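User: Can you write out an input/output pair for a complex, sequences first and structure second?

Assistant: Here is one pair. Inputs:
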Amino acid sequence: MATDATQTAAYEELLDRYERISNIEGAAGILNWDQEVMMPEGGTPARSAQLSALSATSHELLTEEAMGDALDAAESAELTDEKAAAVREIRRQYERATRVPTELVEDISRTTSEALPVWKEAKAEDDFSKFAPILEKLIDLKRDYAEQIDPDRPAYEVLFEDYEPYLGLDTAERILERLREELVPLIDAVGESDVELASPFAGEFDPDIQEALTRDALDTLGYDWDRGRLDTAPHPFSMGTTFDARVTTRYEDDDLLGALTSTIHEFGHATYTQGLPDEEYGSPLGENRNLSVHESQSRFWENHVGRSEPFWSLFLPHVRERFPELDGVTPRDAYEAANRVYDDNPIRIEADELTYHMHIVLRFEIERELIEGDLDVVEVPQVWNDKMEEYLGVRPDTDAEGCLQDIHWSHGSFGYFPTYSLGSVLAAQLYASADEEIDDLDGQIEAGEFGPLHEWLTENVHQHGKRYTTPDLIEEATGEAFTADYFLDYASEKYGALYDL
Amino acid sequence: MATDATQTAAYEELLDRYERISNIEGAAGILNWDQEVMMPEGGTPARSAQLSALSATSHELLTEEAMGDALDAAESAELTDEKAAAVREIRRQYERATRVPTELVEDISRTTSEALPVWKEAKAEDDFSKFAPILEKLIDLKRDYAEQIDPDRPAYEVLFEDYEPYLGLDTAERILERLREELVPLIDAVGESDVELASPFAGEFDPDIQEALTRDALDTLGYDWDRGRLDTAPHPFSMGTTFDARVTTRYEDDDLLGALTSTIHEFGHATYTQGLPDEEYGSPLGENRNLSVHESQSRFWENHVGRSEPFWSLFLPHVRERFPELDGVTPRDAYEAANRVYDDNPIRIEADELTYHMHIVLRFEIERELIEGDLDVVEVPQVWNDKMEEYLGVRPDTDAEGCLQDIHWSHGSFGYFPTYSLGSVLAAQLYASADEEIDDLDGQIEAGEFGPLHEWLTENVHQHGKRYTTPDLIEEATGEAFTADYFLDYASEKYGALYDL
């Protein structure tokens, strides 16, 4: 009995320490959201300092000796599988963190906070040279960071594991390569097809009414407003905790579908967060597995639900009610519009399901070379545009539409992009399982019955938090190892039918 | 030279430590703002935990041994007056904090975070019994807190010093007593006056247009939007740093003046924050002196500017432009409306300049008795209503309009209310000095030239941060000790003229 109590105490002590860190990081999440959505421009110096203080504090709490002792004590206790998994995750973070000096952590935090407005300005003025110096500084800092963690492995491999710790960069490469091999001919075939898909959403759409329609979409899909909110941000994102998972989007007058699909995407992220177990709040068992799995949830809703024919049968009446000028549009028209392949589009977040992966391959190649020192920052615009031409046959007119389009590098996020494609691939694998296990999934979607689908995802993905590693989670949820088969089958079947290939 | 360097190093080390704490508290400020203005209802458990973690962390950082050592080292160095003042302020906080156990700090933070939605619900449902248990818990916690700091002095005196550390509770009492003695007959005389002031703002006013007008007011007065923003909150407040000082307000359909005066009040607070020296960000020299001085700035703008005749000559055209139905209103009408005395109003934040102080006296008496254990929580509604009847001749119909009207106690803020009256009194003393030193201040206000006034306040109050104690700051700014004379002269002169006394 005494031993049991001691063992529980060791675990509880570790979890208490971790919960403090987790809450400090949650606070930083709110500060980041505020910075993107609410903060006046002049607020940057204070915000940088605040984020830097939180980041340094959580780093210190994670790396202090007492944390190492608490980990050792918990690891030598006999624990349930669940608790052992929580300890495994804390150990992983501890090991990575103890190798990085607090000073470097603070420096990265301060620099990314400063980089954000610089990137915004550079993008607004289409002037890459304004962003280049701070980008170079961020690359140096992140390279240093990777070297501190593991000097014996390529820096990019180490950075990638911040976002996807268990699949391995080799798996990511293999999947990306397979996508390129099989999607490039498919995209070519689409480009050569004579089929012209419907394009019924041309025109100007009042952003306020778009917002109302976006709220309709979130209502329809079952967003829990009591634990979330919708706002606008220049680069849509979602963030939060199981109790407060927020969504942002943006509205363009001439792009009705853009706001809808982007919001459904962020909704997918938010449902994952809202679906994490309340009772594990503050523990790794209450945290999302990692970015690939997170992205699988957003792609699941964006692509497999939000771009499906049953969804458009369900949702089109809302669109026609908000915009009576679209009264003649049919569900089939909307479905076609939501699935048009744009092989001449330079913007990642406006890309369709197929060409999207070429945008990722390009970024993956460039950022890896930047981190490994094989490419200079000044060369980025040229290389970006060359690759874009090579993969998609389009050359961006401006850097704002080219290498300045994404926020990620200003966050210091190198190794993040591949998780988008991995997420898409996983979404297809999960959807295939859900479709097998849920009776008449298409019919349920068309009827607006999303309960069973939310339940399936919560039960098979969300509620596990970080209990399983990524490969184990995929195996548990789908009965199979991670594979691109389902995505490629889905893509060739869907686009084959749409474009009469 | 070596000694100089060592002394500078000791001071810098102390300041670095303090800056971390200050930034963590700034982060908590954003989380509090978000909770009031943005957070979905379900977010409470996570927000409570986050605020509690920040509060415990800043408490630990302030009380750790290394902080005591850094203070000792800095104190034994030879410092400029400014630096010595910064050290004095950190010492004061350190001494107060080291006496309070972290557990108690966490408990208070968690309880206040939980109390907020409880208070909101109790107020909405007009049910004091819902709020009573958590109020009782907060009183116990704050009494415990005061006892930890100084078991030999009355708890309320100790708590008061959290908000106004240097004037002393005896000064507060003396001022409040004098206000009661001299204002009660003045309020009575007003009540008996036959003069009927103009009341031209009756009607319904669209909240969206009120918001536009409120923004006009902030533009007119010179709010720095690059370092601030305006939102709505159930109980208006302002918060932030010199780089990001936000204002909140609220709109009632039938109360056009309410939103304007409340916003000008919060604007006054925000100008103080925006006027703190940028270069001292994170140091006590970059922080507001304390609540009495803060309140002097809000009252300065709300009463001495916003309720003045020159201001209404300047601003009325904006009102008439936003609300064309008010086309016949004259500046004199508006001035009279802004200065009506409502001796039958039970709501503090809707009170005029005279009766306001009776609302404060009432709260001061009740909260002191609550903290000193001379009054039970369950008795609050009865005592509140009895006192209201005694001082103002009005009995609130509901607790929502009585003892549940203010947010302060749900924040655990006992000893805060007196600073409102002290602030009013100080505002009058400051205004008298500014009026003497600025050429034709009335004329400048009427012309919308607020530059010289902002400069005077920045130079004499804002830029000093916490360099001077409250009494010294008042002496520096006005050449005199703190006195109620100016306020009482101003009140009897203004209201004597308005009501023909």
